[in-house]
């Protein structure tokens, strides 16, 4: 009998990713698992806690440290080149302040890819994470390194930026890997369409040393909207189950208000709780 593989796709979106954390915490609460997953940017930095089975961890450390300047601040940006503090976010928190369970991450049989963008080609690179430490951390950081707001991450002899530049919602990728029944967590509401960036002329100048990235950013909104169309079509066919925020979660990457950040998480929790039976039926078919 043919075994249908089930997958999970997690979009990025900086602090909007707390919506994804809310949804995945509910998935853990009900013991819902997948054979494979792929995340982009915040979809990886927050989504990795789904593979390590650490429900509540994202909200906990965001509430405790999200307003600290070493977590994210213009001071960090102007002193290091990274809006989000690299050492604090990728070493101090997971190793000391709120330990990331790398052993649980490695034991979990679910395959988990993260997406980064090759700076020289502007093409997506899909890296299969193994143990949540060492080089994996570099790939996770690369996946969340937004051009201009972060320095590119060097891995081997190549540089990488945020995976959202080249494949913001890798639903096609997961299907190409043989996952036939997939769940997608979006961080934009129904009806959202990305528009061309009005600051593109400024972006062109700021990123002129990365010409392939600049060229790709000119068409990113078109590719993103085409991906939304694909997701809607697959959802209509019944091969995708999609979570979209049902309430406003418009928070900036620099949002520090704990109440606003927790509210984003709670929208994810509510949406998942309300549709959990529907989700179980979809996965059981």
From TrEMBL:
Protein name: Esterase of the alpha-beta hydrolase superfamily
Positions of the catalytic residues: 41 (nucleophile), 162 (proton acceptor)
Motif GXSXG location, chain numbering: 39-43
Motif (DGA/G): 162-164
Keyword annotations of the record: Hydrolase, Lipid degradation, Lipid metabolism
Occurrences of domain PNPLA (ranges): 8-175
Keyword Ion transport carried by entry: no
Example GO biological process: lipid catabolic process
GO molecular function terms attached to this record: hydrolase activity
Superkingdom assignment: Bacteria
InterPro entries: Acyl_Trfase/lysoPLipase, DUF6363, NTE, PNPLA_dom, YjjU-like
């Amino acid at each position: 009998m043919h075994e249908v593989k089930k997958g999970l796709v997690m979009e990025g979106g900086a602090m909007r990713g707390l919506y994804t954390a809310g949804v995945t915490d509910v998935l853990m609460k009900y013991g819902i698992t997948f054979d494979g997953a792929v995340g982009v940017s915040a979809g990886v930095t927050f989504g990795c806690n789904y593979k390590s089975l650490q429900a509540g961890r994202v909200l906990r450390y965001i509430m405790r440290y999200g307003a600290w300047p070493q977590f994210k601040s213009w001071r960090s940006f102007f002193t290091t080149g990274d809006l989000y503090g690299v050492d604090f976010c990728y070493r101090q928190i997971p190793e000391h302040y709120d330990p990331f369970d790398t052993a649980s991450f490695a034991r979990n049989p679910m395959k988990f890819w993260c997406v980064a963008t090759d700076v020289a080609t502007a093409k997506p690179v899909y890296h299969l994470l193994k143990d949540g430490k060492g080089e994996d951390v570099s790939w996770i950081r690369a996946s969340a390194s937004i051009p201009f707001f972060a320095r590119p991450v060097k891995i081997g002899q190549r540089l990488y930026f945020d995976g959202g530049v080249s494949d913001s919602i890798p639903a096609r990728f997961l299907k190409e890997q043989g996952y036939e029944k997939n769940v997608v967590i979006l961080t934009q509401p129904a009806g959202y369409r990305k528009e061309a960036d009005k600051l593109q002329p400024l972006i062109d100048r700021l990123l002129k040393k990365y010409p392939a990235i600049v060229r790709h950013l000119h068409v990113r909104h078109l590719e993103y909207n085409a991906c939304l169309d694909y997701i809607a079509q697959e959802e209509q066919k019944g091969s995708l189950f999609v979570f979209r925020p049902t309430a406003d979660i418009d928070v900036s990457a620099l949002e520090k208000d704990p109440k606003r950040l927790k509210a984003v998480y709670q929208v994810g929790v509510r949406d998942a709780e309300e549709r959990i039976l529907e989700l179980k039926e979809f996965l059981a078919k």
